[in-house]
Amino acid sequence: MPGRQSVDAVIVGAGFSGLYQLYRLRELGLSTRVFEAGDGVGGTWYWNRYPGARCDITSLAYSYSFSPELEQEWEWTEKYPTQTEVLRYLNHVAQRFDLLRDISLGARVVSALWDDTTARWTVTTDAGEQVDAQFVIMATGVLSAFKLPEVPGLDRYRGRTHHTARWGTDEVRFDGLRVAVIGTGSSGIQCIPLIAEQAADLTVFQRTANFSTPAGNRPLDPAQVAEMKGSYRAYREAQRTSWYGVPAEPPTELALSVPGRERLATYEAGWAKGEIVGLISCYADILIDPAANESAAEFARSKIRAVVTDPELAEALSPRTFPIGTKRLCLDTGYYETFNQPHVHLVDLRETPLVEFTPVGLRTTDREFEFDAIVFATGFDAMTGALNAINVRGRDGVSLAEEWAAGPRTYLGIAIAGFPNLFTVTGPLSPSVLSNMIVSIEQHVEWISDCVAHVRSAGSAAIEATPEAEAGWVQHVAEVGSVTLFPRADSWYMGANVPGKARVFLPYIGGVGTYRQICDEIAADNYRGFTLRAAGEPAHT
Ligand code: FAD
Ligand code: N01
User: Does residue 223 sit within a domain?
Assistant: First the structure.
């Protein structure tokens, strides 16, 4: 059994969040250990190696801003970088800033227990290693706990299986095979065209049709890169104050206030940008007013009909069950075109639901299918899954997972009442997945680092969110969300993709600029809503 180490801080996870958090805590002079379940750094970009995996935020925007030198020396090659390129970037960052020496790979944290007497956490890994630390920072990822379909019999299936979020490092090919893909979210929509290129026969099992825009990916123009590199500082500042981490003029017009012909032209221009928010940011009310939303949704459906030659198939691929934008929008390269190929088939699981897996394939309520390989593109237990998978216990042994049974409760998505000195990077009830996540990650890491420095310079043992401040934030997040159409969708934003999960709008939709201002004001106001416990002060009663 390895010995017990004592450090200032433990960070769980070594993706964009964990790497930068380590960098910042080192700057503060804290001794820090990072535990990462994967055998390499990179998080999302380490695990999701499926064909076609790439970013849907442009490379020049989806990158760290904390080091101007890094910004200048790194060369992105495409508008939307591939998984390989982002992973290469993160490995470069880990090496360039000498981060690897404090990171334990292949080490999954199984518990984090708070001792109120010593005001320290004990963190235990799956190998039984224990570390005690003043601070624990969960950089466990909002889309890292993957999920399989909740259908019996998978253990009996004898063919190959792959999950998009656990693709593995060996090359996977589908030449000449009969392949199933289950799931048509961003991962499915990205991998289906490439799997179709190899498979002899491909059947796509769709539970909910999704909205997707052609990405218009292309090599980056060196002149555009040079221009960005010349003005990066101003661009980064604009990112920080923007709505979703990519600078853009906010729309002011209402969709139905303009003549139909003009609206269509605006939608065409938005669509042609090849950006996830290209269409929904055409007008100010698309995520608020059902009729405005429907005008944009119908425009997107017309694009599907223009590509898919079989009208019935086009209709089956057309989303009808949720407002556009309230499930994560997708960017694709040739997704709808793929369905015009004779060896590609669609099964609508709303008409004929999945019943079970069999030794040779699967069965729906309609018939049995045989496959050589099944690809699961079935997504994640988003935002809370990776946190709840760890036995986190705060004051009085209270379990985080139990505290959150009716939905997560946090202060700012960063801190939790009853769990002192514990921080969550891009945690539930922060902008997180409704933003360019690198902007949100950097903001959280910097805020957490400042908070840790504040605790230490005050000579305090612990900082903790008050239940009142937490309750106020939970209410504010719900109120802001309820003004939008998001609660109408059965989305992972609402926890609806995981049976039994509480239905709560998990991210904060106030916008990254506004949210940053709130966080900064709270810090400037002597960490309003937090209590500090002096070193040597008796344990909380
Ligand atoms: P992650 O990258 O998820 O890293 C968390 C790490 O924590 C993982 O490596 C995991 O193994 C580790 N971990 C979790 N639990 C434990 C434990 N108990 N013990 C030890 N280690 C643990 N966002 C965007 O803004 N734009 C995009 O274009 C975009 N594309 C995406 C594409 C895909 C395929 C996916 C899945 C997500 C995408 N995202 C995108 C969201 C993406 O997750 C974030 O942008 C970002 O990479 C998150 O970084 P992170 O470090 O917070 O989390
Ligand atoms: O997961 P998803 P994902 N039976 O949850 C279906 C980011 N990302 O991995 O919609 C049958 O979106 C499920 O159906 P339904 C991005 O934020 C970005 O694709 O729940 N089907 C859905 O169709 C994204 O949103 C990129 O009814 C089942 C699919 O599986 C997030 O990660 C690329 C099922 C899951 O879609 C998650 O994306 C990839 C069941 N039991 C990911 N369970 C970029 O492009 C689930 N499904 C940047």
Answer: no
